[in-house]
Amino acid sequence: MKHRTVILFLVGVILIVLLLHTLDIRQVEGKLAEIPREELLIYLAALCIIQLAVMILSALKWRVVLRNSRVSMRNIIPATFVGYLVNNITPVGLAGGEPIRAYILYKTDRISMPTSASSVIVDLFLEIFPIFLMILSSVGIVLSSGVPLEVSVLLFLMTLVLAVLFAAVVSIAYHKPYSSSLLRIIGRIISVTPFFRRYSERLEDEFEDITRRFDDAMKLQLLDNQIIIQGVFISSMVWILRVVRLYVSFLALGVGVALPTVVVVETMVSAVSFLPLLPGALGIWEWTSVELFSMISPYSGISISREYAAMGTLMNRVFFYLIPSVIGVMAVFYLGLNISRITEEDKEEPV
Length: 351
Known about the structure:
Blueprint: H1 2-21, H2 26-34, H3 37-65, H4 73-89, H5 98-108, H6 113-125, H7 128-145, H8 149-174, H9 176-190, H10 194-205, H11 207-222, H12 225-252, H13 259-273, H14 284-296, H15 306-335
């Protein structure tokens, strides 16, 4: 498992290197030299604040989902940070840290694993609403600006996928057979690593009881109006900050870019990055962003070259990928975890 992750990580790095080789760096050298140091520092500080706000809001949203459980923000915040780290180092898409988050909270706050597991599913479910609005906005931008039809088709497919996910999660809350199927799928996934194998075996041994408790937890969280309203609001704030972060990344480098273009690119790249391909979508994120910016920007009135698109994208990735990873490592030490033991079996697995 570790070797596979390292290999895929190296593939991502190679993709970034290949991307840089397709660019004429001489076109941007002069631009970089012209950036005033004081102005750059202000933008960098703003980007740090934006990224920290995104991460804290994500933790707050998870706390809202668990408002009926006795959990501490002191543990939720570092568990969220560890989730970011795991997302960035495992090739299972940008939701790969969710099982780890659930496990950490189950161990630190001693809430039941069904409750903890259902909370991260509901947490992800709350992202559907703002993403759907982002996609609708992107569709409007694309259709009104004359962007090639292929982009509109891709956005339409993304909308269909979200609709299916929405229906699936709601069905889980109302129909026990669906939750049973989901738990069996989760059991197969977590049994891949010895770290979770003991729990997956317990899941199979006590399947009916765990399914009932998981079902009750899902209904308690998903059918709570306060959780839905507050969670969707926080999710929307996170997505707005993500768009602002990308926009400010270009401003920091003195590159002009239209805000509608940023909205479309952030929406589409984020959706693609959920696919379980490379750790943290490394390489895929950069290539996709650059190509989308160069394809869409000419229709926005502010055309940017692939070189400038790469500059802004890489600046954004420093704050979206590198900083959360560093903070995630700090959270690992704070919680007393050992990521190198993620493939080892835990000795105490009460359900």
